[in-house]
Amino acid sequence: MSGDVLSQSEIDALLSALSTGEMDADELKKEQMEKRVKIYDFKRALRFSKDQIRSLTRIHENFARLLTTYFSAQLRTYVQISVATADQIPYEEFIRSIPKMTILNVFEVPPLEGRVIMEVNPNVAYAMMDRMMGGKGESINKITNLTEIETKIMSSMFEKACEYMSEAWETITDIDPVLSEFEVNPQFLQMVSPNETVVVIALNTMIAETRGMINICIPHVVLEPIIPKLSGHYWMQHENKTRSPEESKRLESQIQQAMLPISVELGTSNISVQDFLVLDAGDVIELNQSIDKPLIVKVGNVPKFVGQPGKANKKLAVQVLDSWKGRGGHDE
Question: Quick check: 115 pLDDT over 70?
């Protein structure tokens, strides 16, 4: 929290001083006008623009929707996940802001360098585990060292969430997230230097009656190669991109070379199961197709043409006569 934020007692004392005349409101305004210097804290270096933070928020809004669907299916209960805030802070401040014992999922995101942390509040994590084990989704506030079974259940559940992180990021870049570490003590997790800028996306999470937070911490080193893609200009270009004539021509050429299965239906017939069971080599089945009627030519099991049988170079063949009109007499 910033040191400029006043406590409730300080606010009450300030209002009391203004009302009794101990302080002059006009003098306060004058001092505020004269103070034009803005203090810059080098420990809180702002390395991302507001536009880039908005892009990251948009990505994780999609990620939150995907997680809501995934956990709803896995836990079979009401789940609601949404983005609460997105901010850039020093890594040290992020570590201080989370509980001393919590659930930490560390993901590698190749081909990008560095690692991403998904911190899950113990309230949420225990509620999820309780549902996975057949409970009502009840939770506890305190987390101790997890048993091997608890660790396996939780890590397996969040490992599958990797796929949805990849899907949410595909509009910016292709990543292949892999769960590399599962930890409960933030002090054992020193990914970057304490003053390194990280982007923290906080997700409001509700599992049945349990509420908590899921925090996603992304270091600057991870985002550095794709920072230009986080601008609004890139998003507009990406959305409005159209194929060039060369690309369209190349695509058309590739489609024309695609192989399609073609079959000709000589006719059909209905026989009883008893007759079918006694069929033998040399038996003749009468078809309901007259020899003077055209045959149906199918492309991928879909009627497309009508033709007549014949021979070409001593091989059986069919000559296309017309397009298939269908039962209503129209082309299909």
Answer: yes
pLDDT at residue 2 in the model: 45
The DSSP symbol for 309 reads E
Residues with Cβ within 8 Å of residue 39, at least 6 apart in sequence: none
Alpha carbons 84 and 61: distance in angstroms, whole number: 9
Check residue 227 and give its pLDDT.
83
Superfamily of domain 262-323: SpoA-like (2.30.330.10)
In whole angstroms, what is the distance from residue 167 CA to residue 64 CA? 11
Note the pTM of the prediction, 2 decimals: 0.57
How far apart are alpha carbons 145 and 130 in whole angstroms? 16
pLDDT recorded at residue 140: 67
**From start to end of 37-193, where are the E strands?**
79-90, 103-108, 115-120, 178-183
| pLDDT tens-place string over residues 134-161 | 777 676 656 667 788 888 888 888 888 8
Q: Which amino acid is at 50?
A: K
With cut-offs at 50, 70 and 90, classify the pLDDT of residue 29: low
Domain extents in the chain: 12-38, 44-239, 262-323
Residue 275 identity (one-letter amino acid): D
Homologous superfamily (CATH) for 44-239: CheC-like (3.40.1550.10)
For residue 91, give the nearest of 127, 113, 117 by alpha carbon.
117
How does DSSP assign 105-165, residue by residue? Answer: EEEE-TTSSSEEEEEE-HHHHHHHHHHHTTS-----S---PPPHHHHHHHHHHHHTTHHHH
60-78 pLDDT, tens digit each: 999 999 999 888 888 888 8
Q: Is the pLDDT of residue 238 over 60?
A: no
Residue 24: helix, strand or coil by DSSP?
coil
Q: Cα–Cα distances in Å, from 277 out to 57, 79, 219, 272?
A: 66, 56, 71, 9
Residue 238 near residue 171, CB atoms below 8 Å: yes
